Amino acid sequence: MSDARFHLAWFLNFSSPAWNGTFTGSDGATWTDGRVHVEMARSLERGGFDYLMLEDSSMVSDGYEGSSRVDLKYGLYAPKHDPMPLIPLMADATRHIGIVGTASTTFYPPYLLARRMSTLDHLTGGRVGWNIVTSSEDRAAQNFGMDTLFEHDHRYDRADEYVDLVTRLWESWEPDAVVKDAATGTFVDHTKVHTVDFDGKFFASRGPLNTMPPIQGRPVICQAGGSPRGRQFAATHADTLLASAYGVEKMKAYRDDIRARRADLGGDPDSVKVMFIVSPVLGETMQEAQEKADAMAADSADKVEAALGHLSALTENDFSTFDLDAPVPTVTTNGHRSTLADFLSLGEGNTRTLREIANAWTINSLPLVGTPDHVAGLMGEAMQEVGGDGFLITGKPNRRYISEIADGLCPELRRRGLIRDGYEHRTFRENLMAF
Ligand SMILES: Cc1cc2nc3c(=O)[nH]c(=O)nc-3n(C[C@H](O)[C@H](O)[C@H](O)COP(=O)(O)O)c2cc1C
């Protein structure tokens, strides 16, 4: 019998959770110590999540109006902490859940990344993952001494080589190199630790790594490329993919495409788990959930401004210069190509205005509104049609929302046999690949 189970992941920012609502408490003041995020990790583990993904970027954006006003007013890109130091704190408070940190191949030196990930894999007991991004903004590049970011596809070419190098560094120690032989007083057998002598087109490193290889061999590799070049990169390297696709048909097409690319590369299509972005809206009753969803979808000038601030940052087109009450003019980007394409597709052949699109814009693959029982049913049906592998839940979190998912939706999914009931393996990779 085929396994009907799917995986769950959560997209998390190391920034303030929702802070100015009725049920948001004081987290807007205290989030900086990371404790609320650690509590979220515990809740998600209780829910049976495979992993949480800590996103990252490194800029204060002035993409909108040529000013940081909107970015900072809504806390879109800043303030945000470095996610890497949070990983061991989360690991210490949990036992099973995988924890994925984001690091950019454009800005992190490969040796540093290989060493950091290896260290984190040991600190988490084999539960770390790396979300590989190439970064998308000139403003971020300028914080690292560059004038502009490399061209979109070129960034992925560099990233391919980068992954080859860090993999070689992780493999520079043979698994049985540490002998701890008391008789000879030998801690490590030096004949089992090798230089890598990597001399590529973009990167060079002598090696070996000066720490031991990761417990998992290599951390779980996570990726979110949506363009053709991004998908090829993901199909080559990723164990799990974060994907936005509107509706079951597009979700299926996306997953089929990734699986076909993996197979064409000689890999096993089941070895890449595609996670679709959703933001379930839950209530005690269908009516309560629908009222919540309606309130979230209501037109609002703040929502339009924040959406356009966000899009301006990640595409570096200043959307404040466009007429809100006209269709969107033709725009291109060297940043997030697929995100821009998704946004523009909401224009339905230029029949909707920029204001309407910005009001409607959510990065959400499926509308999931209702009681936990109803939403669990929708998720199960969607996964059957798509073929697998799981969902990435997003949304500005607060403790109440996390609990609705972990303590409301997850038990319903588990009762139906749709998500894991416990963690059968020690490492993140083994659990992720278990079904
Ligand atoms: C769910 C999700 C999470 C992402 N997280 C990050 C991130 O943390 N940092 C980042 O720079 N880019 C992030 N991205 C952007 C992707 O790495 C990629 O640049 C984007 O999806 C566009 O890919 P494309 O240019 O191949 O279409 C994320 C994208 C998605 C869909």
TrEMBL record:
Signal peptide: none
EC category name: oxidoreductase
Listed transmembrane segments: none
Binding site for FMN: D56, T102, H152, Y156, S227
Top-level lineage group: Bacteria
GO molecular-function terms, A-Z: monooxygenase activity; oxidoreductase activity, acting on paired donors, with incorporation or reduction of molecular oxygen
Database matches in InterPro entries: Diverse_substr_monoxygenases, Luciferase-like_dom, Luciferase-like_sf, NTA_MOA
EC number: 1.14.-.-
Keyword Iron-sulfur appears in the UniProt entry: no
Pfam families xrefs: Bac_luciferase
Gene3D superfamilies reported for this sequence: Luciferase-like domain
UniProt keywords, alphabetically: Flavoprotein, FMN, Monooxygenase, Oxidoreductase
Keyword Signal: no
Location of the Luciferase-like domain: 32-389
Membership in a protein family: Belongs to the NtaA/SnaA/DszA monooxygenase family.
NCBIfam families: FMN_nitrolo (TIGR03860)
Protein's name according to its UniProt entry: NtaA/DmoA family FMN-dependent monooxygenase
